[in-house]
TrEMBL record:
The lineage of its organism: Eukaryota, Metazoa, Chordata, Craniata, Vertebrata. Keywords: Coiled coil, Membrane, Transmembrane, Transmembrane helix. This is Small integral membrane protein 15. The keyword Glycoprotein does not apply. It is a single-pass membrane protein. It comes from Saimiri boliviensis boliviensis (Bolivian squirrel monkey). It comes from the Eukaryota.
Length: 62
């Protein structure tokens, strides 16, 4: 049952790409950029959190 859903989805994507290549590529490009942006935001948050913890430890040591 699960394989049928994947097969139907894959057929839909191929059909969409054939009928509207520009729209397909635009959507794909936007999805990739959104994913990269999300990863960059997550990395920035982790870095800020690490920096904040370090600052708190320094302040506590003083």
């Amino acid at each position: 049952m699960f394989d049928v859903d994947i097969k139907a989805w894959a057929e839909y994507v191929v059909e969409w790409a054939a009928k509207d290549p520009r729209g397909f590529l635009t959507t794909l490009f936007c999805a990739v950029l959104s994913w990269k942006l999300a990863k960059m935001i997550e990395a920035r948050k982790r870095k800020q959190k690490k920096k904040q913890k370090r600052q708190e430890k320094i302040a506590k040591a003083k």
